[in-house]
């Protein structure tokens, strides 16, 4: 459903609950200390965030075979840019 410099995001199904989730596969192609620190800081912040306007990090999975880290997020049907571009969609000031 999306990709960035260090990751791809997939729509997936949690095999235990059947729930649809967003699975962010983080690639560690460049394992320089600064990149690792950045990712650790991002995960630390995401684990602590609990706000209705922020997508929730539900879990973390690692794969030694693919040298990947998977972040499991609640699934949202649209991203902010997609919603902002929809006619008739209005946001409140707190949003």
UniProtKB/TrEMBL annotation:
SUPFAM superfamilies: Protein kinase-like (PK-like)
PROSITE patterns, alphabetized: PROTEIN_KINASE_ATP, PROTEIN_KINASE_DOM
UniProt keywords, alphabetically: ATP-binding, Nucleotide-binding
Sequence positions that bind ATP: 24
One GO cellular component, as annotated: nucleus
Swiss-Prot/TrEMBL GO biological process terms: positive regulation of transcription elongation by RNA polymerase II
Record carries keyword ATP-binding: yes
Domain Protein kinase: 1-95
Highest taxon, organism lineage: Eukaryota
GO MF annotations in UniProt: ATP binding; RNA polymerase II CTD heptapeptide repeat kinase activity
InterPro entries in alphabetical order: CDK, Kinase-like_dom_sf, Prot_kinase_dom, Protein_kinase_ATP_BS
Identification of the protein by name: Protein kinase domain-containing protein
Organism listed in the record: Nymphaea colorata
């Amino acid at each position: 459903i999306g990709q960035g410099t260090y990751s791809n995001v997939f729509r997936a199904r949690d095999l235990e609950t059947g729930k649809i989730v967003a699975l962010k596969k983080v690639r560690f192609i460049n394992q320089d200390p600064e990149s690792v620190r950045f990712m650790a800081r991002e995960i630390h912040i995401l684990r602590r965030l609990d706000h209705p306007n922020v997508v929730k990090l539900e879990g973390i999975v690692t794969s030694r075979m693919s040298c990947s880290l998977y972040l499991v997020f609640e699934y949202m049907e649209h991203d902010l840019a997609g919603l902002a571009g929809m006619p008739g969609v209005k946001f409140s000031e707190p949003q």
